[in-house]
Amino acid sequence: ILKDNKNLRRFHNDALRGATGPDVLDISSTALESLPSYGLEAIQVLNATSSYSLKRLPPLEKFSSLLEAVLTYPSHCCAFRNLRTEKQNFLLSIFENFSEECESTMRKPANEMLDDSNNTSLWSADRNMYPFGTDEESSPYSYSTIFDDSEMAGFDFEYDFCQPKVLTCTPEPDAFNPCEDILGYSFLRVLIWFINILAIAGNFTVLLVLLTSHYKLTVPRFLMCNLSFADFCMGLYLLLIASVDAQTSGQYYNHAIDWQTGAGCSTAGFFTVFASELSVYTLTVITLERWHTITYAMQLQRKLRLRHAVPIMLGGWLFSVGIAALPLLGVSSYMKVSICLPMDIETSLSQAYILLILALNVVAFIVICACYIKIYLAVQNPELVAANKDTKVAKRMAILIFTDFTCMAPISFFAISAAFKVPLITVTNSKILLVLFYPVNSCANPFLYAIFTKAFRRDFFVLMSKFGCCKSRAELYRMNYFSAYNSNCKNGGAATAPSKASRALLLLSALEK
């Protein structure tokens, strides 16, 4: 009656209340969205294959007699696995010496086991060997003193305890969706909140200060705005993952399908791929801009201007949006794992998509490293540049390269191996990379490229002075800025040829922008 009924969408909550059955409930290939909360106690076999609308199960304690479940989604089997473990742990906490009694029971002849079937005591009648008696009045440890009469009904020691019936459930959870919450580890739940708040607050502050500054919008400022927005989106992704994990903690199996197939996971996946690619693209452009500024310091006609930077970044936006949208169009998928990353490599096109992203990230890292090495070599001259300034340049570049390497290297290494279908790390352990390494740049970039620079501190104090705070500091920064500006104007006409010393000083100022 129920099976293959495509129009069956609702099962009345009281439909099975008071019924003596059914033993088998087959709702496969139906459009049912939920099961009733009453009358499920007698069901021993539940068949719900191809029931794609059934995304949530009723309270698990209702399936007190269930022995076999054939379901649509693997995540639902996680619920029954956890339930079985809880029952076993409960029995183990009561019967400390059950293994010895079960072992002796299994050695009994069949006729003796039948003769003893009416014995309701926990252990055999030999009180010298076992601590429990057979007389309910003389022993406080008989079955009936531990369980209610309703729980004792039909209970047989040899078969119900020594040989308990095991619940089987299919399909089993796979490697991409293990039986765990979204983040898996408890310590990651704490860290992800700290990291996403740091990324959101840091990048929002940078955007606010740069966009409200009354100083001229230069190329470095424009690029920094793009970088901060990309890293801000990464913070939003982490916030979304952390929020859903907190809401579904301990019961993710009942929310997995709604989350991974819904708009929430697709939005999170789009955010993270878009943010990651735009951030890497912008970091590469910033590095190339610094290299170009140092290399052609005295050739003003070759200076990169805002009219050049805008179309360059527009191309980066279009590229990042396109790459992030492909999984929504069927190339790979954000639905494969609970953390909504495009890990689907079932088809050759999906595999090529993942490898393309990883290859571009590796190339970007190589370009960044090469540019900073060339910049450092271009300005390194102990005879012309003070040692402390030379050291400052080297340290600043080392930090920038190290943060990029920390973010890209571990993820790229394990992702490339997984893309070739030779995974070296489980999805559970990959969540550690997601929280500890993946957002390193998003947290560090606002500090390394903006907050720790003099130009940003000047803009920040000027902004605060508009609200009546830090007026003296703001005025000091204004004076220093105009002094440096006038000095550059006076010396600008006298410079006829670039020197390594002047380029070193220019680099230091570029790193401070």
Automatic annotation (TrEMBL):
Keywords: Cell membrane, Disulfide bond, G-protein coupled receptor, Leucine-rich repeat, Membrane, Phosphoprotein, Receptor, Repeat, Transducer, Transmembrane, Transmembrane helix. One of its GO terms (molecular function) is luteinizing hormone receptor activity. It is a multi-pass membrane protein. One of its GO terms (cellular component) is plasma membrane. GO terms for biological process: adenylate cyclase-activating G protein-coupled receptor signaling pathway; hormone-mediated signaling pathway; male gonad development; ovarian follicle development; ovulation cycle process; phospholipase C-activating G protein-coupled receptor signaling pathway. Residues 202-449 form the G-protein coupled receptors family 1 profile domain. The chain crosses the membrane at residues 190-211, 223-244, 268-288, 309-332, 352-377, 398-420, 432-452. It is found in: Cell membrane. Receptor for lutropin-choriogonadotropic hormone. The activity of this receptor is mediated by G proteins which activate adenylate cyclase. PANTHER family: GLYCOPROTEIN HORMONE RECEPTOR, LUTROPIN-CHORIOGONADOTROPIC HORMONE RECEPTOR. Belongs to the G-protein coupled receptor 1 family. FSH/LSH/TSH subfamily. This is Lutropin-choriogonadotropic hormone receptor. It comes from Malurus elegans. The gene is Lhcgr.
